[in-house]
Design a protein that fits this description.
CATH topology of the largest domain: Elongation Factor Tu (Ef-tu), domain 3
Radius of gyration: 20 Å
CATH class of the largest domain: Mainly Beta
Helix content: under 10%
Number of strands: 12
Structural class: mainly beta
Oligomer: single chain
CATH superfamily of the largest domain: RimM
Number of helices: 2
Largest sheet: 6 strands, antiparallel
Length: 172
């Protein structure tokens, strides 16, 4: 697992003082407001230090110590911002999706392995887990099963053990 994760992108300059607009790739823009440092690569080699940060609609407006003018801000347009995962202080039972991808998926009651977690997307009501099974379909691709991340189906998620589900009959 990588130590850094993509969190958003600088979309434009916001003011002559060097503020920038940031598009958040997190659950909410407010999540990013807890960070004091944003990294400019996935290795943490260079970074921007937050001076001020606030939410504005679905964006973040931030000023950084290293950006003091509109001209400098434009040089950072379209730059991906990374956060250090261990600085996120996630609640217990909350995980980064990138850490979950590839986890084995098991039946909660029987322990039968159904496949691996291949993708996660949000449909507005909840996250949807895409489980890629070993079953080959007529198109020569592995069968994929969609499971809503709600307590009726997803019983346990553990980065060490996998995802445990209770599917309805015929789901797998």
């Amino acid at each position: 697992m990588s130590e850094y994760i993509e969190a958003g992108k600088i979309t434009s300059a916001h003011s002559f003082r060097g503020e920038v607009k940031i598009q958040s790739w997190c659950d909410t823009p407010e999540f990013l407001m807890r960070f004091r440092i944003f990294y400019l690569d996935e290795k943490g080699g260079s970074f921007l230090t937050v001076e001020k940060i606030r939410a504005a609609n679905n964006l973040i407006i931030a000023s950084f110590k290293e950006i003091d003018s509109e001209e400098t801000a434009y040089k950072f347009k379209n730059r991906i911002l990374y956060i250090k995962k261990d600085e996120a202080n996630l609640d217990d039972g909350t995980f980064f999706i990138s850490d979950m991808i590839g986890l084995p998926v098991f039946d909660f009651d029987t322990g039968e392995k159904y496949g691996v977690l291949f993708d996660v997307f949000n449909n507005g009501a909840s996250d949807i887990y895409v489980v890629r099974t070993e079953i080959i379909e007529k198109n020569n691709k592995n069968k994929e099963v969609l499971i809503p991340n709600v307590s009726a189906f997803v019983k346990k998620v553990s980065l060490g053990d996998g995802v445990f589900v209770t599917p309805i009959e015929g789901m797998f």
